[in-house]
Amino acid sequence: MARGKLFVVSGPSGVGKGTLVKALTAVRDGYWLSVSATTRAPREGEQDGVDYFFLSEERFQDLIDQDGFLEYAGVHGKHYGTPKAPVMEHLDAGQNVILEIDVQGAAIVHANMPESIMVFIQPPSLEALRERLEKRGTESADQISKRVENASLELMRMNEYDVVVKNDKLEDAIRLFIAIFDCYANAE
Question: Are 38 and 80 in contact (CB under 8 A)?
């Protein structure tokens, strides 16, 4: 059985990464979305093991010490990481794996797994991104400002990716996102 392919999807907070990934997995089989670990508190409606693995700082550090992450980083004052074992198990079983992670983590994964396919999601503008974050209603004004400031730095790293999808018109972005995954998944 052929090994699965590793897709790394990143972009600024609030850009629509999750929306695009959900649209893809709703119409295509053979993809497994990795669940990241974080030390941040769950948002309303989030479930442990589904949205994230919500870990204490101590448990997170234990996994770092055990080489249990493909990547990990501090983001917005909290820690996030990609547990290694389940990703490798799914790839070895022939499934394509999607990592939905920040640009810091994406760079680490790509350095260690250069065969990974890097997909960056770009907002139409920083102002549009700010509006999306405000509508989401999950962060304070200070947190939103920090996320928009971080987004401007993340946008400078788009050239590190194999492909960029501008999420301006959602339906167009979904079609392009699915076409990209189809192309790479079927390539030898």
Answer: yes
Domain locations in the chain? 6-186
Matching residue, tokens 């167009």: 172
pLDDT over 80 (residue 90)? yes
Record the pTM: 0.89
Q: Report the number of secondary-structure helices (H) and strands (E) in the chain.
A: 7, 9
Decide yes or no: CATH 3.30.1360.40 for domain 6-186. Answer: no
How far from chain centre, in Å, is Cα 79? 14
Question: β-pairing, 96-100 with 6-10?
Answer: parallel
For 15, other C-beta atoms within 10 Å of its C-beta total: 26
The angle at the Cα of 44, spanning 171 to 167, to the nearest 5 degrees, equals: 20
> In Å, how far from its chain's centre is CA 151?
14
* pLDDT for the residue 49: 92
- Radius of gyration over every alpha carbon of the chain, rounded to an integer in angstroms: 16
CA 115 to chain centre: 17
**What is the C-alpha to C-alpha distance for residues 111 and 95, in angstroms, rounded to an integer?**
21
Q: Which of 70, 68, 38 is nearest to 51 (CA)?
A: 38
118-151 confidence digits (pLDDT tens): 999 999 999 999 998 888 888 888 988 988 999 9
Distance of alpha carbon 60 from the chain centroid: 18
